[in-house]
Amino acid sequence: AQSVAQPEDQVNVAEGNPLTVKCTYSVSGNPYLFWYVQYPNRGLQFLLKYITGDNLVKGSYGFEAEFNKSQTSFHLKKPSALVSDSALYFCAVRPRGGGADGLTFGKGTHLIIQP
Amino acid sequence: EAGVTQFPSHSVIEKGQTVTLRCDPISGHDNLYWYRRVMGKEIKFLLHFVKESKQDESGMPNNRFLAERTGGTYSTLKVQPAELEDSGVYFCASSQGTVANTGELFFGEGSRLTVL
């Protein structure tokens, strides 16, 4: 069975500094990988995805993530954090192949950007 | 364009009662998914509809949960009878294609269920 680990419940970053939200996964083969963000009292919003090709994918709001096959990681990054980036971030995977289309999510990481 | 809408936003019921949650997907989205997040834990997949057909219901916890999508439009998720461990936030998501094809799900704001 596949699983996703987000080892940090909370990440604190000063505004303007680079940020990293970590994600590692356990799934057979090369999965599809995703990041979603949830702002307070809102639904999850899609940020970015890795399907194939370049290991560095760019997404919404200046975020990017790097697929690292050897480390089975898909860390979310941004060069310069904004206070408005403060939210709950979820990493998710879907195995490649097969008909099951459900995503497996991590527990989420609270990102707090301090002014 | 309207997003995915869910109703009610919050429901408080007693153990043993019945609750029905509703999801209206984005118009034209054939794929509809239900997920659940129990407090502080992962968001768990429940099931996937393609139009009115259940494509995958492997995540449904037990037979107290019944999901329908009559006519391939809105969907309902009924919990009967509700137990304490059913408390959580139930998310609905929709997409035009499958996750494998399009990669992006559009989520509703969720229905928070509290079972006392």
Can you offer a commentary on this structure?
The complex is a heterodimer of chains A (115) and B (116). The mean pLDDT of chain A is 93. Chain A is globular. In chain A, the strands form three sheets. In chain A, strands 2, 5, 6, 10, 11 and 12 form a six-stranded mixed β-sheet that branches. Chain A has a four-stranded antiparallel β-sheet with strand order 3-9-8-7, with no helix packed on it. A two-stranded antiparallel ribbon of chain A has the order 1-4. By secondary structure, chain A is mainly β. Chain A has no helices and twelve strands. Helix content of chain A is 0%, strand content 50%. In chain B, 3% of the residues lie in helices and 48% in strands. Chain B contains one helix and eleven strands. In chain B, strands 2, 4, 5, 6, 9, 10 and 11 form a seven-stranded mixed β-sheet that branches. In chain B, strands 1-3-8-7 form a four-stranded antiparallel β-sheet, with no helix packed on it. Chain B is globular, with a radius of gyration of 13 Å. The mean pLDDT of chain B is 93. The A-B interface holds A 4, 32, 34, 36, 41-46, 49, 51, 90, 92, 94, 96, 99-108 and B 3-4, 31, 33, 35, 40-45, 47-48, 55-56, 58-59, 91, 93, 98-100, 103-110.
Q: Ends of chain B: how far apart?
A: 37 Å
Main beta-sheet annotation of chain A: 6 strands, mixed
Q: What would you report as the Rg of chain B, rounded to the nearest angstrom?
A: 13 Å
In DSSP terms (H or I, runs of 4 or more residues), the helix count of chain B works out at 1
Largest sheet of chain B: 7 strands, mixed
- Considering residues with a beta carbon less than 8 A from a beta carbon on another chain, report the largest interface and each chain's count: A-B, 26 and 30 residues
What string gives the helices and strands of chain B in order? EEEEEEEEEHEE
Mean pLDDT of chain B: 93
Oligomer: heterodimer
How far is the N terminus from the C terminus of chain A? 41 Å
